[in-house]
Amino acid sequence: MSYDVLLLGLPGCGRNRFSQALIAHCQKHQMPTPVCMKSLEVGSQAEKRVWTLIDIRSELHHVEAESYLLACLAQSSAVVFLFAESADLTTQAFWQNWLKRQGIDLPVLRWFSQTFTDDWHWQSFGDDVLVNQSALPKLSLQSMAFELGTVSLEHLLFGLDSIKQNLGVELWRVKASVQTQEYVNPVSIEGTINRWDTYAAEQATGKLTILGTSLDKTLLTEIVEASALA
């Protein structure tokens, strides 16, 4: 039995958070600890458990993102619904029905409150499957990074969301930890293809990273500079 677990999913779906919680769960209950990896880390065609992770807090209505997710599921032996405690019943039903419409018949784990039940064992979830590196789905995304001082959070999010909604810019992943005009504490910004989240951060790194397509460096620089406070 392999100890490797390959975690697939859309950018920002919560793979790092899930893998850290899984390892902590195994250590707490003295279980064998899996080796969690992403697709880029797969170096052989050995058998592994392959799970597709889906953030179910928001519905998904994006053709390319859905196609990518289906390609992940085609390689998987199980599905994990992440952040289930924060998803309303309508959105949970959307994802249940989405799997049915796509003909996906795989075991599903609903991950509540970022913890696992004491009796849950990862080695009983899904089967080992033969992983072919060349068949794994890949996204070709541009990457850009910016340095930020204190910003207007409202202006920054408005600018980023505007180019996403109106100019055809595809923002697949946005991540930042910044000091803002609106709050005393630093704020983390998490953006994915279908949602924005902000929450209190321990410290401000002053860095903004963006993954996407049709990214315009000049336009993004203007948005960042317009949100900056002198």
CATH class category label of the largest domain? Alpha Beta
**Structural class, please?**
alpha/beta
CATH architecture tag of the largest domain: 3-Layer(aba) Sandwich
* Largest sheet entry: 6 strands, mixed
Task: Give me the CATH fold name of the largest domain.
Answer: Rossmann fold
Q: What proportion of the residues is helical, as a percent range?
A: 25-40%
Discrete helix count: 5
Proportion of beta-strand residues: 25-35%
Distance between the termini: 58 Å
Order of helices and strands: EHEEHEHEEEHEEEEH
Could you please describe the fold and organization of this structure?
By secondary structure, the protein is an alpha/beta fold. It folds into two domains: 4-130, Rossmann fold (3-Layer(aba) Sandwich); 142-227, Hypothetical Protein Yjia, Chain: A,domain 2 (2-Layer Sandwich). It has five helices and eleven strands. The protein has helices at residues 15-28, 63-74, 89-101, 153-166, 217-227; strands at residues 4-9, 35-37, 47-55, 78-82, 108-110, 128-130, 142-147, 170-178, 187-192, 195-200, 207-213. The strands form two sheets. Strands 1, 2, 3, 4, 5 and 6 form a six-stranded mixed β-sheet that branches. Strands 7-11-8-9-10 form a five-stranded antiparallel β-sheet, with helices on one face. Helix 4 (153-166) runs antiparallel to helix 5. The chain starts with a strand and ends with a helix. The mean pLDDT is 92.
